[in-house]
Amino acid sequence: MFGNLFDEEEDEGFASASTKGRTAKGGEEPPPPRGRSNLCGIRNQGGTCYLNSLLQTLLFTPEFREELFSLGPEELGCLEDKDKPGAKVRLIPLELQKLFARLLLIDHQSASTTDLTHSFGWNSSQGTNQHDVQELNRILFSALEHSLVGTSGSTLIQRLYHGTIVNSIVCKECGNVSQRKEDFLDLTVCVCGVSSLEEALWNMFVEEELFEGNNLYRCAQCSRLVTAAKSAKLKQLPLFMTMSLLRFSFDFTKCERFKETGRYSFPLTIDLRPFCEQTDAEDSDFTYELFSVIIHKGGCYGGHYHVYIKDIDELGLWEPPEEDCKPKTQKKIKEEVKELPEQKLQEDDPLSIITAIIAQESSKSVLLDQLGQKLMNKTGSSWSKRFRKHYGPIGKFLQSHNDIFILISNGTRVALKSNSLSPVADAPAPSEKTVNFDLHSEANQKPNPKIEGSHWFDLNDSTVTSIRELDIEKQFQGKESAYMLFYRKTQLHRPSEALNNPQYKVPSQLIQMAEDENRRLQQMREEFEAANNTVELHLHLAPFYKMVNGVLQPVSREPSGSINLSFDCRKTVGDLRITIYHMQELWEGDMALTVARSLPAGLHLYNTLTDDGVSLYSAGIHTNTDLFVWNGKQVCGAAVQSGAEWEPVLLTVVRPFLGEDVEQEGQNGVKCQNNSAGSEKVGPGLKREARGFAGGATLGEVREALGEPRESLLCQENKRGRGGGQGAGEGGGASGWRVFPPDDMQRTLKELSLKDGDALLVLEPDSFDSSVFTRNGDVVTVTTPSDCRWLQVEFQPQIKGDEEEQRKKVKVPATGNMLLCEVKQRAIEELQLQEQPSGVQLCLRQVDCSGKLLPPVFEELSVRDAGVRLMTTLTLCPGNAPKETQLFLHFTVGSAPSTGMKMDIIVEKTCTVKECLKAMLDAVGLDGTSWHLRRVDWCEEVGEPLMDEDASLSDLKISNGETLVVTEGLLPPKGFLKLPVWLYVDLRCVEPDCNPTENSPAEQQMERAETTDGSCAQSIFLCGGKMAELRNIGRVEISDDATLEDLKTQVLTLPALQDVCVPVASFLRVWWMEGGRLTRILRGQQVTLRKLKLTSGTDLCVQGLMKEEDLGPKQVLLNLKMGVPGERSYYPSEELVWDASHDSSPRSLRASLAAHYGLSPDSLLLAKHQPEKHVWEEIFNWTQQVSKKKKKKKAESLLGPPFHIRDGDVIGIKNLLIDSSKDFITAEDQQGQQRLREQAEQRRKGCDLLFLHISSNWEIRDLIKFPISKFHISLNSHIKTFLSVSQFCLTV
User: What is the DSSP track for 28-96?
Assistant: First the structure.
């Protein structure tokens, strides 16, 4: 089939001729690195999947691999010498060594077998033809043995795989035994007509073949034909047992081959003692575990091979595979694993199932009442549903098999007879000796249990994926089924040095070869990525941009705000963010990256890159992409709108041109602004200026941005106007403007179809009083320049004694482009205030509608940019005017602004809170560090403190004119929590009749820990009396970035717990306390306190444990109390962790409790205890309301309403088989209910007296100061109404 697989026969296993090698193509993409499993696959040459599967099996046979690596160059020669004449080079073992080293050490996804197949003598066509893997296994072993002749590895195959079978024929008349030995490297077992590997081995080595009738045997001793029996036994077992399954058969009726696809099971662990000739050795000499399954997918004329392999040395990274089965199947599998199935059972054979159930018990017997429940847990269905129709009641079934089962303990228990035989294998004690299908065999052999099914991989040519042991059962039947099985003796143990060490026993020259190859691959990948995956990015930095009318504009025309960056598009957005962080060392705070585009109106933002794990290529980033680097919130204190609907539009804003006033201003020394950047004089009456606005802004917002009053008119240039000689907008009678109707003020620029370059005329209502503009309907005609505009300035002098100087007013001519400093200077000149004392500064301040002075205006800005409307009044007051980069703030010291005197201060926007505080303290002559700043809330009361003293005022969104309060006292450390800690002490352990060994040493030490700092203690009353006490042992200060494990470690440093010895943090349980009660357990050792939502002042309680605990998100800790039959009391409580992650219904809880107590779920009655009310709430199944649209019912969950099961809840249990009472109430509960009724009556009487006292003696302000928390919820409606009115008055 393989042709001449081994071409070295002519030279006694040595090669003197060179073999053709491969040359790599230049410029090709380098091979990808290994996947997440960290294991290397093998590339398929076209039809070599069978070879790949066998080679991977040999690689993951550590003993074979290490024996092969032990052969050095002095025995095998060197591959470099294969072209030298007369050189003796053993090609096959050398190429196999090289391939194994590449699979173990080189970082590539898959390795090539071309060099190895060349050493076989194959040509290119043989690599594309598929052959049988069983035949390849034998031929390859034969080739290796032939190639290793004369070396220390000549017996390699014999030592590992060689076994012996003894065929015996026994004469039935004289008893003469004729034996013949037969060597084997693998066993070929039958599939046709049998259902399992055990049955096939039984037919081969236990069943006897009789020679009788016409088929007699000639006995050498009797010298005649006699009746005889022929049998076979395994005489010598190899270290590795290979089983070849005869899946392919021939149908003589149809004269064609076919593949056996029926169910054929095989165990993970098998005991071959019943099939051996000598059975007096130890069990480990006969026990094998499965480590490789070669699988064939397809038919008898073609298909595909892949292999399931157990990673003995744990060289790969095993991860739980994604579950692809249905939820019911998942649940059934997990329940079977949890119930410790030690035997692969025939699903339809109740005899084998019951036998295995009884054999698993330590007492080797099962109560008859519990047998049905255990069978349901094992199979997933009851006896009545699955077996009763065919086998009758379970009692009659046991009686009919009295040769196997026996009733003991007066007929209450069932056990196995000591001499019973298995109905499956008919060998002695099958459940104990013959075959063990133990899914936990790996966990039982290793001191540290691993995850069930760990370190099994599916190696499918170049692809390597993790699988579970349970996935092997899927290969029992079907077109894709097991074809070859590889077992190893369980007595073969691996040294600790070999675990997770792929270099173990690998020759140094191969390690060096692999290191050189890895360096070469890394260099190739870097060069390839640099050549093919580099993009050019244009970064725009937010500090160099400002928001102008909702459009991003550069602060200056210099290109300092734009940076070009070359970056690898395969890297993630997070990598790009880190790179920019390193480039911008002075960057503070968060950094957002947003795709931008340069438009005529300015820079516009589109989508923000939020997922740091996505590559730039996946995020759609390509060469010449513009990215805006900012904090993701604001630019210069203004919000930024992104998206296509907000694309800015560049409009040409047309305003009246005041030619005469400008000339007059020039004569008075006022600087003209008409020829500023972006503006253009169009004619005698108009001036154009290019302004950008957000496309999503409404026309009304544009009017406000231009500083125009609501009465102003906006006109659109009419390019089809009826104008005569002059163009539209150039005055002189041209009628080229259409007035926007009022409804258009609420429409956006995009909705109005305004585009870049469109003109917009801005007019005020008084403009039509002159001869410049005339309006006829919705058409505006421009004629001559407009009148001059003005601002009224009022001087407010200081009060001298009881006299107040008379206020002076003056009207100053002004335009929108005129600077406010020029307005102030002209007002000072006209008011003749030049004679004011030297050093006295004046500033301009606006006045609101109530007459309150607003903060000073920025005199560096123009009237329009400062937001000052023309024809309004400004007040000239003593004081300094802030610059545009500064803030004018009010502040008080120690009290609210309403009770103290306000003071003013001017600080930079970029100054920090600490610097601002120091400036305020210096202004009032205070010193020291025990001060901090607080905001003022909307009620003019002292509000929240400014926690981040290193943050700038602009980052904290402190606006111009805001009031701050300087408050005495230090701030707590940033990000630190102060957490009170309590100790949980179980009082049962200090009772005289209590067994002290029930608690762990850590618990006992914690119980002996005493509070030496005078801390308090409080008791927890559980059902049944006083059972636990909480002792305050101090508090801890810890960062909210610390993990729960760090918190536990710091708690153990408290003085009260210095003598407590806890092995690891998982031996400590931390409770969240609310109102002096334990509410929930904090989960996740590595979860930060911030994610656990802990805040300063949160009470925590620690409890020592007997064993480690790491609860999942939906694992609930319950306190179980089993009722004493016939009494109104309970046995001592015990803890149970209920896993509600898959099913949180009452059915699941009842099944868990039944398994815990060994009872039937139907015999249990459950109830939840509510200690605050001293009542028990029975847990039952309920039907939730079904929506008319959604016919599917919601799953019943005890974690939600109406039960809300939480950590620490007490669950009462009644066993209805022996307890007929369904009442959970105890005598203590009745006493507690009576106390609650008495307290309610006392509160009612006390509140009535309080109401009378309030109505007669208190005023309304006294009631307001009375804390509402003092009133109980049971106040009558009159008092509630009275309090509501009081709170309303307070709000008013």
Answer: PPPPP---TT---EE---SS-HHHHHHHHHHHT-HHHHHHHHT--HHHH--GGGTTSTT--B-HHHHHH
Residue in the block written with tokens 């031929």: 139
- Determine the distance from the C-alpha atom of residue 40 to the mean position of all C-alpha atoms in its chain, rounded to a whole number: 28
Catalytic-role residue among 146, 162, 304, 440 = 304
Tokens describing residue 896: 């609210």
* Mean pLDDT (whole number) for 1172-1180: 88
Classify strands 649-656 and 759-763 as parallel, antiparallel or unpaired. parallel
Q: Of the residues 49, 171, 219, 916, which is catalytic?
A: 49
Rg (CA), the chain: 45
Cβ(779)–Cβ(761) below 8 Å: no
How many Å apart are CA 613 and CA 594, to the nearest integer?
Answer: 16
Contacts of residue 597, defined as CB under 8 A and 6 or more positions apart, other chains included, come to: 603, 604, 606, 626
Residues 343-359: pLDDT tens digits?
A: 444 566 888 888 888 88
| CA gap 1079, 1084 in Å, rounded | 17
Tokens standing for residue 523:
């260099």
In which element (H, E) is residue 968 found?
strand 963-968
Q: In what order do the strands lie in the sheet with 963-968?
A: 903-908, 886-893, 963-968, 931-936, 942-945
Q: Which two tokens stand for residue 980?
A: 């009170």
Clarify whether 304 is annotated catalytic.
yes
In degrees, rounded to 5, the angle at the alpha carbon of residue 279 between the alpha carbons of residues 277 and 285 is 110
CB contact set of 81 (below 8 Å; sequence gap of 6+) = 87, 89
| pTM given for the model | 0.43
For residue 514, the model assigns a pLDDT of 93
- How many other C-beta atoms lie within 10 A of the C-beta of residue 1183? 7
Site of tokens 């360096």: 519
266-296 burial string, b = 16+ CB within 10 Å, else e? bbbbbbbbbbbbeeeeeeebbbbbbbbbbbb
Q: What pairs with residue 298 in β-bridges?
A: 303
Paired tokens of 1275: 């106040």
| Six-digit token string for 105 | 């050490």
Residue keyed to tokens 């595909």: 304
The SS3 call for residue 996 is helix
Cis peptide before 321 (omega within 30 of 0): no
Strand intervals (E) in 220-300: 224-226, 228-236, 240-246, 248-251, 256-259, 269-271, 287-299
Residues 597, 624: contact at Cβ < 8 Å? no
DSSP track, 1220-1280: -------HHHHHHHHHHHHHHHHHHHHHHHHHHHHHHH--HHHHHHS-GGGS-TT--HHHH
User: Sorting pLDDT into bands at 50, 70 and 90, what band is 16?
Assistant: very low
Distance CA 1291, CA 1284 (A): 11
Could you read off the pLDDT of 42-89 as tens digits, one per residue? 998 888 888 999 999 999 999 999 999 999 989 888 888 887 887 788
Helix (H, G, I), strand (E, B) or coil at 189: strand
Q: Both tokens of residue 941?
A: 């009361």
Is residue 49 annotated as a catalytic residue, yes or no? yes
Pairing of strands 240-246, 187-190: parallel
Q: Say if CB 949 and CB 914 are below 8 A apart.
A: yes
- The one-letter amino acid code at 972 reads P
In the chain the first and final C-alpha atoms are separated, in Å, by 100
Task: Give the number of C-alpha atoms closer than 13 A to the C-alpha of residue 907, restricted to the C-beta side.
Answer: 30
Looking at residue 857, what DSSP letter applies?
P
Cβ contact 891:905 at 8 Å? yes
Q: For 1039-1084, how does the pLDDT look when each residue is reduced to its tens digit (9 = 90+)?
A: 888 899 889 888 888 888 877 777 788 888 999 888 778 888 999 8
The rounded distance, in Å, linking the Cα atoms of 234 and 442 is 26
For the stretch 612-662, pLDDT in tens is: 888 888 888 888 899 999 888 888 888 888 888 889 999 888 887 654 443
Q: Which two tokens stand for residue 419?
A: 């001499």
